[in-house]
Every structure is written in C-alpha cells, then in structure tokens.
Amino acid sequence: MPLVPVRGTRVHYEVDGQGPGLVLVHGTGGDADKVFGNVVGHFTPTRTVVRPNFSGSGRTTDDVTDLTVELIADQVAAATRAAVDGPVDLLGFSLGAVAAAAVAATRPELVRRLVLVAGWAHSTGPRDQYYFRTWRQLLDTDRELLKRFSALTGFSPATLNRFGHQGLADSLADTWPPPGIGRQIDLGARVDLRPLLPAVTAPTLVVGFADDAMIPVEGSRQLHTAIAGSRLVEVEGQRHMDWFADPTGLIGLTRDFLDAD
After folding, report:
1. Residue of 57, 94, 220, 230 marked active site
2. Is there a catalytic annotation at residue 165?
3. What is the pLDDT of residues 26-35, one digit of tens each?
4. What domain range includes position 162?
C-alpha cells in the first residue's frame, strides 16, 4: 500500500499501468476506487495511472484538522511525484478539480495537460452556500437522508430509474459516506480559486454537465473564463455523477484531449 508523507499527513495512493503519468483525483465523499475504479483500466495499457486519496478518503491519515485547498493540492502533488516522473496529465473531478487546478496553478512544471470535470471556481454565492450547508446539516442529523439527497441531486432521473428499486435500496445500505466527508464538505463551502486561476498555463479542458444540480454548470463556465486558452465542453442531459454509471463519454473526451498534438 503506497503512502507518501506530506505536511503531517500520510497520503495513500494507487498506481497502475505503464507509460506517461495520468493522475486522477476524486471528489467529495469519493475515493480512488469508488470514483475511478471503472475508469482506470481504460488507460493503463498506455499510461501509468496514479489515483491519490486526499484527506478524508481512502487510507490517507492526518490530524483531523480543517482541510484547505493548499493541503489537498500538496497531497496530490506529493503522490504524483512519488509515483511517476513528470510532467503528468492531471484530471480532477468535483472537489478534485479544485485540487487539480490549484496544482496546475502553483506547480506548472508538474502538469502537461489539465482536465477539470464538474468543478467550480468559488463557493461564495448564495446558492452554493445554501447547498453545502444543507449537505452538512443532513450529514450531522440523518445520514440516510444525506444519501437520498445526494442521489437525487447527483444523478439524473433516467440514471436513477436504470438503477431500479433494488439498486437504490442497495445504495442506502452501502457504508458510504466515509467518516472524513464532513471536512470535505466544509472545504467545498470555502473554495475560492479566483486568485490562482490566471496562473494556470497548461492546456486545459473544462467539462461541465448541463443539468448538474450538485455543482451547476456555471462553475465550469467560471473556470473556463478564468483559465486563458481553455476549452469548455458542456455535456447535455447529464448530472454530476451520471458518468459513474457509464464513463465512456468522459473517457473519450479525455483521451481525445490528452492525445491531441
């Protein structure tokens, strides 16, 4: 089980495959396996795929203090450097996109190409504050309601119907969320990348989901506007976590961008 120390934490990460480095960073409440377990095999024939778990997820350990964007970015960078020679291609999803953007802004030598999936630039607006506070209150009062709320806002009605009655019942029985999700939610409510984003120089693909009710597509538009030369793709008819059920579309977008001349 590979671990790397950084800033008083021990960061757990997974490494698979061979070739140039591709780093995949999970989001709030996720981990290397839950978010990217059905993705990694699509890249391992030609890539060394690194999947770090930032604080609150996987087997990463720390002193359980409040999280910061700087800390999770340091954790991602440390795992990357421990696992593979850079520069690497870096993909972050949701809060992982926040971490990935911070890494690219502060360590331009480490990032060859950047993919930001369903991310956002700041959480200062009324709607975002309302959402994160609701999420945190549900975590503190009723974890089953948190699961229901997360599913109803994270997946489209069509995806939930494909899960079926038994699939949704199984999701309620799952051990999710992890113990560290509260600190990740709290960090999500404090995000403000606006001072960092102009420093991102790596070619960047921003992927937003047009029907996202968890992190609205406006967050991806903010990232695109702030990162010079970035490309924005808005995927119609998709919500935040629909790609978990079928990642082929996102894999195709990512591969085409990373392999472009």
Report:
1. 94
2. no
3. 999 999 999 9
4. 3-258
